Amino acid sequence: MTVTTAPTARYRKDYKAPSFSIDTVDLHFYLDDTCTRVVNTMQVQKRDDEPDLVLDGEQLQLVQVTLDDRLLVAEQDYKVGRKSLTIYNVPAQFSLTIENTINPSANTALEGLYKSAGVFCSQCEAEGFRRITYFLDRPDVLSVYTTTLYVANKEEYPHLLSNGNKVDTGTTAEGLSWVRWHDPYPKPSYLFAVVAGDFDLLEDTYTTAEGRQVLLQFFVDKGNLNKAYFAMEALKNSMRWDEQRFGLSYDLDIYMVVAVDFFNMGAMENKGLNVFNSKFVLADEASATDQDFINVEAVIGHEYFHNWTGNRITCRDWFQLSLKEGLTVFREQEFSADQGMRAVNRIQDVRIMRTHQFEEDAGPMAHAIRPDIVVEMNNFYTVTIYNKGAEVVRMLHTLLGEQTFQAGMRRYIADNDGKAATCNDFLQAMEQASGRNLNQFKRWYSQAGTPEISVQTDYSRRQRKLTVTISQASDKPANAPFHIPIQVELLSQQGEPLHPPELPVNSVLELTEPEQTFTFTGLKEAPVFAPLANFSAPVKCNDTRSLDELITITRFAQDAFLRWDAVQQLYSQAVHEAIAQGGALTLPNALIDGLKASLTDGNSDPALVALLLQIPSEEGVAAEFKYVPVSAIHRAITELHEALARGLYTELLQAWDMHWPQATDKQAAFSKEAIAARMLCNTCLGYLAAMTDSEAVHERLQRQFAAEQSMTLVFGALQAAVHNQHRLAEVQLAQFANRWQHDPLVMDKWLAVQATVRHASSIAKVHELTEHSAFDWSNPNRVYALLASFSHNFAQLHQADGAGYALLVSAIKRLNTANPQVASRLLSPLLNWRRFNDARQGLLQQVLSDLRNMPDLAPDLFEKIEQSLR
Ligand code: ARG
Ligand code: ZN
């Protein structure tokens, strides 16, 4: 086997404070497509007795090095390594100037400084700054940056941007135009950014709680200004919300957001200069769905909230990533919830945890929210670090309550502002504010895996007493017991809420032992016990409740998540039974009746009804099996879909008709009510389109597809037709492409909807679409839309003949050197091969070892394949 020099792992336990600090950085960029010159002057101070300064640098062409005005001599004074620059025997304090060149046009990995679609743009998190200049590229080195950008042709680049405040502009003797920026807040290199391009500019202002005026600027592709208004509103809402809920205001006089088409991730919180994937900025009703708008608001909020949780207080090392990401996702989720759809949001967040995070935690790349070992940092921007990290912060919030949690936040900020902190610093502030000992709680930071709780109830009529025994077990044998907050509801058989004296006011039981007993008295009859209200902990619950109890919960629980979850249990039971017996799937009549009642009840929230009707995905069901029966899952989900379509046909039509006026109401285009109505119309049509012979359905599919003012409705109809292989699908696909071929973000939906058809034809279709003009291998959004979507089309990816694997692997090979971050994201669904049958195991092992033998295998892929095959 020819493994290229194996990348080395780094361990959390090896943390060592830097031997040098860099107090100021003065950067000059002479921008050029293929040869940008960077002149970087740093004021450096020694912190210990280390003689040599070792700087990080990758893919740089070094021109010269000057130390305190002395031009250094190669080999004698310094050495250039493949990924470093070592300067020998430096003094205690000195000025160091490094001059190097880079090639932004050749940078297809979109990390460091790159040029795409006519725009210079940078992405430095996690370790991209070292692709711009030599530096101590680690988050605990905080410096004050001054940045000057030079261009030959200022008509081509009217906007030259960097962090902080614009302090000066001018023209050099050679005729170069320049702009200088200064950021007064010391920051790590990963928060540095530069952008140069020609944009349309949307401006507004915001007045902080203290009365300071902040200039807000959105830079978008020419002609897209009208699609930036919503994001601007979302920014102002975020700024107001952070003041009101967290007492945190913005700290610079200017806040800029740039939308770019080529971006590996969602967005980046660079100080004062956020860079966004354009799909999280640009939105108008004709081209973006309600979900797109909601995502824009969430990501705008997320990046803004980073200004305190991430920028003012940053991470000591990358193992602490969840310190900023988990906390910021929690803040983003609370912001979205406070905008008005708390229950809907919560349920959607739980779905992400269960289908994606539980899966990651059960696979070869399982890691704690504060990992111990990392090969390629870009592999750790995961659903575990982000979403489970947010769940852990949420558990603290549940245990402490809003007031004490906010006191903990104030303490955390007071103690750590301007510093690079650790997860323990955060926990310590929470301990000090609450007076609680969080030692056991800390295990959530160090132990991977998903605990499973089991609940047993025993009611004594004579003593009027309920005894509840809750135990916890872990899928990782070495784990010690977790501290698990379990919010509960007790209901009478008639569904009234009960609050026995032993139940804490906040209804949160604290499970800390492997097994614990809780007793509740004064109960006239056996109550229904519903654990994990609001999904109070990221755990699995081994459910043994009876059908009657589940039905009571679906009807009467106060907490919307519990009601939704009980219905999910019923779907899941039906699916598991059908798989176990290999027979036809049957649904309990009580469930069908309940769904009928919700569909036709004008008083229930249509958004929640839509969620009740959302059945588990194939991927979600697969996550519940240790050994995955691929085709049985596929069959059961198909039957469940059809059973609901048939069983609820009349009520689905009725509900669609009932909500259609609200869904298309112009005045309330983006109101909660209109969004909810559209959610339900789409859900109904998603089932109805399975009734391919119905004229009534045909007519509504056409009517909804023609609702041109709303992409939510148009795309909802298209998706219903395509996913159900309705005879309208081909015509609608053609019309849609014709109407939207000029708009790549809309065409991404067109690609994705075809890649997610649950039918064997999808493989050939995806192949074919890689040749379509709407597709582009060099743009991550296009690759995600077509290939990442396909990679979650579970039964098709896992086709028994390996055709799905072959399709994905050829894409990964193609992207290995061009864009390893994107390649690595595509690889994840192939890693958990041990959970499939022998034939698939063989195929998967084969493709993984093929990949490993590739020349120039990217570290991103190397790390995952190694973990998977070990
Ligand atoms: N800090 C960014 C965010 O969550 C994520 C950027 C990570 N980028 C990367 N290439 N690893 O808002
Ligand atoms: Zn973030």
UniProtKB/TrEMBL annotation:
Chain ranges of the Aminopeptidase N-like N-terminal domain: 27-191
UniProt-recorded name of the protein: Aminopeptidase N
GO molecular function: alanyl aminopeptidase activity; metallopeptidase activity; zinc ion binding
One Pfam family matching this protein: DUF3458
GO biological process per UniProt: proteolysis
SUPFAM superfamilies linked to this entry: Leukotriene A4 hydrolase N-terminal domain (SSF63737), Metalloproteases ('zincins'), catalytic domain (SSF55486)
Peptidase M1 alanyl aminopeptidase Ig-like fold domain residues: 449-542
Entry annotated with the keyword Metal-binding: yes
Required cofactor(s): Zn(2+)
Domain Peptidase M1 membrane alanine aminopeptidase: 230-444
Keywords on record: Aminopeptidase, Hydrolase, Metal-binding, Metalloprotease, Protease, Zinc
Keyword Lipoprotein: no
Reactions it catalyzes: Release of an N-terminal amino acid, Xaa-|-Yaa- from a peptide, amide or arylamide. Xaa is preferably Ala, but may be most amino acids including Pro (slow action). When a terminal hydrophobic residue is followed by a prolyl residue, the two may be released as an intact Xaa-Pro dipeptide
E.C. no: 3.4.11.2
Family under the similarity heading: Belongs to the peptidase M1 family.
Role: Aminopeptidase N is involved in the degradation of intracellular peptides generated by protein breakdown during normal growth as well as in response to nutrient starvation.
Domain Peptidase M1 alanyl aminopeptidase C-terminal: 548-869
CDD domains, per the entry: M1_APN
Superkingdom classification of source: Bacteria
